[in-house]
Specification:
CATH architecture of the largest domain: 3-Layer(aba) Sandwich
Helix content: 25-40%
Shape: globular
Number of domains: 2
Strand order of the largest sheet: 1-2-4-3
Distance between the termini: 32 Å
Structural class: alpha/beta
CATH class of the largest domain: Alpha Beta
Number of strands: 8
Radius of gyration: 17 Å
Number of helices: 5
Oligomer: single chain
CATH topology of the largest domain: NADH Oxidase
Order of helices and strands: HHEEHEEEHEEHE
Length: 227
């Protein structure tokens, strides 16, 4: 499965079966985590066969159940780090999807289990990503008109449209989609967050996620990010 196919196929899954993740798939995921940590400076970890993080009985958005495996998204504080969490975490999400695994980004409704998490000085657990074999494949979220999510100087090239289509399928907190893209000078792209009324809005995590989706759809060879 190609990444663009994974984007189209992947939906948040909140209920998981007891089927274990195969050893060879775990090895691929661990290798990818090592690569991403070296590239990003994050401290992403993989918790396996650990059910306590989601067994606290707390009322949960989406009623997550059956989770025994999850990525722990660890890094220092700050907006730039939050964007990295989204950008690099979504790479794991889509990799998992290509291997037939399901995922779900989880912000507040989990418990940190000390014995499976390692934190260096100044690091925090930003969120986790549930991982495993879902009871089903999840459901797509409703897509809003893509034209509301970008501004462009002049004609919009096909690669930009493809990038926006991929961005619109990105998971965002409570499907808030608080982002906007700008196309300038033919191939200069900028992505920004928008104001959110949510108490813990996660807009910078979301920004990282949608930027990675845009790259997959548009092709990194076709544009440059404008900081």
């Amino acid at each position: 499965m190609e990444l663009i196919e994974a984007i189209k196929a992947r939906h948040a899954v909140r209920k998981y079966t007891d089927k274990p993740i195969e050893t060879e798939k775990i090895a691929v995921l661990r290798s990818k985590i090592d690569t991403l940590n070296k590239e990003s400076g994050l401290h992403i970890q993989l918790a396996l066969n650990e059910p306590k993080a989601f067994s606290s009985g707390i009322l949960k958005y989406g009623a997550i159940s059956g989770v025994k495996n999850y990525f722990v998204m660890v890094g220092k504080k700050g907006k730039e780090v939050e964007e990295k969490i989204g950008y690099y975490g979504e790479q794991l999400v889509l990799l998992a999807q290509t291997m037939g695994l399901n995922t779900c980004w989880v912000g507040l409704t989990f418990k940190e289990i000390d014995e499976v998490i390692s934190l260096a000085e100044g690091e925090i657990v930003h969120c986790v990503i549930a991982l495993g074999y879902g009871v089903d494949g999840g459901r797509p979220h409703p897509l809003k008109p893509v034209e509301k999510f970008y501004e462009a100087d002049g004609e919009v090239p096909a690669w930009f449209k493809a990038g926006m289509e991929a961005a619109m399928m990105a998971p965002t907190a409570v499907n808030q989609q608080k982002f906007k893209f700008f196309l300038k000078d033919g191939n200069k792209v900028k992505a920004e967050t928008l104001f959110s009324l949510a108490g813990k809005s996660y807009v910078y995590y979301d920004l990282g996620i949608v930027k990675y989706h845009f790259e997959v759809g548009a092709g990194v060879e076709n544009f440059e990010w404008e900081l």
